[in-house]
Write a sequence for this structure.
């Protein structure tokens, strides 16, 4: 079984709809991250969490919110989706140190029409 | 200026060739450096960390030049399976976050 899972894997939605992307990990890591990837822009950090009570904005948090329901679960919400949020979204985890390997989920391909 | 810059490529090379990628970073306080590999539409995976003294893992060699603020990745005896996008990654020490380059695409042909 995969250590980091994301649901859904693909989603098509309409402008203005609320959507939630979910991430679960079995690695026992405290640190979790949400990124989006766009062609030519690379991976950009949306939100990150160093433990259940710690949530931090990344470089592109506008239009997004997150919830850390448990050590193993970190959800990303788009309250009112817009077309420029069409992207590939990745969740990642790492151990305590920032120098440790980041383990990524398989990604969610989101299309907003 | 982007914090981490890479040539997007693609680099087209035949099997068996040696190919090198460079990456530059702007934050001189950066302490940790990595190369990740990403296959098409898949998640990034750590290829190797980059140490000041340079390090090698089989056909892959990574080097760091702090004075010039660049990182390199050398792939010897390229295989078809090396075809992928290689992401240069730098740790922003102050915020304990990774900063990703946009990636360099490698295509190895028979």
């Amino acid at each position: 079984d995969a250590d980091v899972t994301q649901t859904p894997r693909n989603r098509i939605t309409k402008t203005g709809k609320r959507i939630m992307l979910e991430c679960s990990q079995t690695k026992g890591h405290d640190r979790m991250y949400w990124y989006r990837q766009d062609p030519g822009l690379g991976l950009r950090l949306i939100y990150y969490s160093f433990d259940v009570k710690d949530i931090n904005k990344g470089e592109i948090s506008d239009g997004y919110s997150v919830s850390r329901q448990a050590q193993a679960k970190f959800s990303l919400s788009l309250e009112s989706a817009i077309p420029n949020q069409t992207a590939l979204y990745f969740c990642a985890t790492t151990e305590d140190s920032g120098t440790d390997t980041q383990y990524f989920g398989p990604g969610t391909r989101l299309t907003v029409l | 200026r982007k914090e981490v810059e890479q040539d997007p490529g693609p680099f087209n090379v035949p099997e068996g060739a040696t190919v090198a990628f460079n990456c530059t970073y702007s934050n001189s306080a950066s302490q940790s450096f990595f190369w990740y590999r990403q296959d098409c539409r898949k998640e990034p995976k750590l290829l190797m960390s980059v140490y000041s003294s340079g390090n090698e893992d089989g056909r892959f060699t990574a080097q760091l030049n702090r004075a010039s603020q660049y990182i390199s990745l050398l792939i010897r005896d390229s295989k078809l399976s090396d075809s992928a996008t290689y992401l240069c990654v730098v740790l922003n020490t102050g915020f304990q976050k990774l900063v990703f380059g946009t990636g360099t695409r490698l295509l190895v042909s028979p």
Notes: Chain B has no helices and eleven strands. The interface with chain A takes residues 8, 31-32, 41-46, 49, 87, 91, 93, 96-98, 100-103 of chain B (CB under 8 Å). The mean pLDDT of chain B is 92.
